[in-house]
Amino acid sequence: MAKDKEKIEARKKQLIDLTTDFCNQYITDEYAELSKKLIEKMARKKEVPFLRGKIENWAAGVIHALGTINFLFDKSTEPYASLDVILEYFGTKQSTTSQKSKHIREMFKLGHFHPDFTIQSIEQDNPFNNMQIIDGFIVPKR
Question: Which residues belong to any copy of the DUF6398 domain (predicted)?
Fold first, then answer.
């Protein structure tokens, strides 16, 4: 049991270091914080997913998952990074990275405007900020 916790902590630290380094070089500190938060959440799962497989694949998957829900791959948004930058940096393949990303997004039901994993600039543009639900209907707040 203690050995398992040590292994989880070691892999978690490795994963946080990889994603933080990438975010510091190519994206923002905010993405680094969200990556850390997501990795820590993954580490608390009963079945910790990143114990198996290459750590680089999981790091790329974390960045891809967060990037997908925060429009990172859209050239009209800031920050912007291409998928190729992620793949090249981590030395991963597109299919593997996409699979890890999808697994992570499904595991935590991550989608656009997720309250815990949306960057501030995207949250400000959330179209639902000015909406409310009244009697089951979505209506403008004004």
Answer: 15-119
Q: Hey, what amino acid is at 124?
A: Q
Q: What is the pLDDT of residues 56-82, one digit of tens each?
A: 999 999 999 999 999 999 999 889 999
CA distances from 87 to 26, 46, 94 (A): 13, 29, 7
Taking the C-alpha atoms of residue 79 and residue 32, their distance in angstroms, rounded to an integer, is 13
d(CA 123, CA 115): 8
Domain boundaries, the chain: 2-140
Spell out the residues 6+ positions from residue 94 whose beta carbon is closer than 8 angstroms to its own. 83, 87
Q: How far apart are CA 14 and CA 20, in angstroms?
A: 10
The span from the CA of 23 to the CA of 7, in Å, is 24
